[in-house]
Design goal:
The structure is a single chain. This protein is mainly α. Helices cover 66% and strands 0% of the residues. α2 packs across α6 and α3 (56-62) runs antiparallel to α14 (267-286). The radius of gyration is 19 Å and the shape is globular. The relative contact order is 0.12.
Length: 322
């Protein structure tokens, strides 16, 4: 059964999403025709290259969009990629670098030599993306500079909103959607996608000094930091991962009807993103929940094999009933 009432942890996230949605003002929607055509072409091509290099899954999914929306989606990815890299790769002065990037990416007049900012400024203006969503994403990414672990799932969900649900909400504006009733589904899908990332990357994150799994839930299954440090895959860990994957799949299912609220020419792209990521959970299970010694993934062929079924499902979605 698909849950229609929000979870307690969802309520503050929905409030933040609604606030950002209603914050857009006339200057945010100013015409986007003042950009140099050649510069825009180069900027969008640069973002497409970044996407192809760093995320085969996003590149595949965004490739299912019409050309203009495809370019905008890849500009969004490039914005997110650069933001993540500043935090992950800047050993010194990461906070200062992130603040400088924030100023550039949100500037109403991006510098011509900052191709990601040029492309994202154009895309955001063209599709009326509320600027607060970008600000919330930068806040979420910056959280990694101060917080290394999370006590409860509610805390983790707030982090997931910042780094992933905001991406879904911005994507929703690019793809097109029916109205604010689509917001809760985008929020939930973002949390589901980020949870998959977290389950896939437990080992890598631990090595980087980060733990995203809720400590409260680890303790409930009798797991300790020592177990994680040694990568112990025993019955406790398997039970814990089954619990996590079960919840993750449930969130995907509950978010799925929201795809029916998107414009028809964008539904398959979002369905593909969700379906390809969800398949990572299958790979984790097939390898005995060992996310310490290998990184779960889907091959290009496996991604392509999923597309016909996702196309069919996306065409037969029962619209959510209020």
């Amino acid at each position: 059964m698909i849950r229609t009432q929000p979870y307690t942890w969802e309520l503050p996230l929905l409030s933040r999403a609604q606030e950002a949605y209603t914050s857009i003002t006339a200057p945010d929607l100013q015409a986007h025709t003042s950009h140099d055509t050649e510069l825009l072409h180069d900027a969008y091509e640069h973002c497409a290259h970044l996407t192809s290099v760093h995320s085969r899954s996003f590149h595949l999914a965004s490739g299912l969009l019409p050309p203009a929306k495809r370019r905008a989606a890849r500009a969004l990815y490039a914005f997110c990629r650069v933001s993540d890299d500043i935090v992950d790769e800047s050993r010194d002065q990461a906070a200062q670098k992130l603040a400088a990037w924030r100023s550039r990416i949100l500037s109403p007049s991006p510098a011509a030599d900052d191709l990601v900012s040029v492309a994202w400024h154009h895309a955001r203006a063209r599709y009326g993306v509320p600027p607060q969503y970008a600000e919330q994403l930068l806040d979420g990414v910056g959280r990694d500079l101060q917080q290394r672990s999370y006590e409860t799932f509610a805390e983790l969900a707030t982090y997931c909103y910042g780094v992933a649900s905001t991406v879904g909400l911005m994507s929703m504006h690019i793809v097109g959607f029916s109205g604010p009733e689509a917001i809760p589904y985008a929020v939930k899908l973002g949390v589901a996608l980020q949870l998959t990332n977290i389950l896939r990357d437990v080992g890598e994150d631990w090595q980087a000094g980060r733990l995203y799994l809720p400590r409260e839930e680890l303790a409930a299954f009798g797991l300790t930091d020592d177990d994680l440090a040694h990568g112990r895959v025993d019955d406790r860990w398997r039970s814990f991962m089954r619990f996590q994957i079960r919840r993750n799949r449930r969130l995907y299912e509950e978010a799925w009807p929201g795809i029916g609220l998107l414009n028809a020419d964008g539904r398959l792209a979002i369905a593909a993103a969700a379906g390809v990521y969800r398949a990572i959970l299958d790979d984790i299970e097939e390898h005995d929940y060992d996310v310490f010694r290998r990184r779960a993934h889907t091959t290009t062929w496996e991604k392509l094999r999923l597309l016909p079924g996702l196309w069919w499902r996306s065409r037969r979605i029962n619209l959510p009933v209020e």
